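Reviewer comment 2.1 asked that we show a complete input and output for one of the modelled complexes. We chose the histidyl-adenosine monophosphate case, as it is the one discussed in the main text.
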Amino acid sequence: MYRAPRGTADILPREQTYRHYIMANAVRLCQLYGYEQIDTPTFEDTGLFVRSVGAETDIVQKEMYTFEDKGGHSITLRPEGTAPVCRAYLEHGLHNLPQPVKLYYTAAIFRYERPQAGRFREHHQFGYEAIGEADPALDAEVIDMAWQFFTSLGLKNLSLNLNSIGCQDCRPQYLATLKEYYTEHTADLCRDCKDRLARNPLRLLDCKNPPCQEIAIAAPKSIDYLCPPCDEHFLKLGKYLNLLELPFKINHRLVRGLDYYTRTVFEIQPATAAGSQSAIGGGGRYDNLIAELGGKPTPAIGFATGIERIILNLKQQDVPIPDPAKPPVYIAHLGDEARDVAIKLAATLRQNGTGVIEAFGKKSLKAQLRQANSLGAHYAVIIGEDEVKANTAVLRDMTTSEQKSIPIDQLAEWLP
Ligand code: HAM
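Response of the prediction step:
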């Protein structure tokens, strides 16, 4: 027996109810904030992700599904959605449109991680990117949209974490100070952090090991090292978020796992969750990325959230999800002639816009009605030998068990 590969999941109809609910809200929000949809390929040239996500990140070092295709090209299954959107922005000359260009996507994302609750090797993200604008008012709008999205889904007890990690000008000094601080604590760091100290010091701050977390508490804070323009950006953003009455907290240890961020970074976490692994969504500014990929310097900011993690939280919080519409009519029949009538009737009703479930095989009337009930049909239409002769059908309201006989050509008028 084959099973779905480790870290992947089949999405059965009962899960689709959640997805439809989530995506209906997502699309509504995108319309309200002026985002248009973009789809990019499932795989890209490996270099795109190495360049953008960063050669020293966990994603690039350990988690990418990279392979050589039959033409000898190195291909990688998309481990995140921002770089492909930036690639498309450049490839299609979207800088010629009014800026910022606002794009959203839903995409399968592939990361070779250790599977656990809420962490998969294939997951799905809803994300959006606003490219071509540096105004901190855009940061506030992007963060507001993320917050309104989770609120509109009915999720509660979320916390909004914010930080600024500066820019090319001010970060080097901060990193030097951070390294100095951590060098004094090398002996107490976990093995991964000893490695991070040399390769990616920012990531020391969000290590999940308790001894490393202790050390991170007193570590130098990036916001104390911002250059004047970054400082002003961060102050204005804070002011706008206050105007919007968003309950944000500054989290000095929030650094995110992708290297392309500049200035604003933010994450939304369930209040009960420990560590940034359990973030339900995150994003930030990436003002250098488009230039890094060969374009003109173009400021940008975006956000993405994992749909499986949203579902997990909706379930944990017992959020009621609207039931999807079920076909309202079940057609039951007894005998060969009745079945012929049923087949034609089902086609006629559907053409009329009524959802119909047909009975198949040769089940007893009782079994057919039981099935109608379990499928949630509001009405059953019953056709037996007498009805065939009289050109009628019995219409049964499944909720009240009331029945009446109706001429078959008038049935459509009685049905939704
Ligand atoms: P990210 O924080 O790596 O950001 O991923 C975004 C969200 O995807 C996470 O907050 C989480 O909900 C979900 N997620 C990540 N990994 C997994 C996994 N293995 N299993 C299930 N869910 C997962 C990005 O990918 C950036 N591209 C976000 C962004 C957009 N920044 C700017 N624009």
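The chain has 15 helices and 16 strands. We note this here for comparison with the apo prediction described in Section 3.2.
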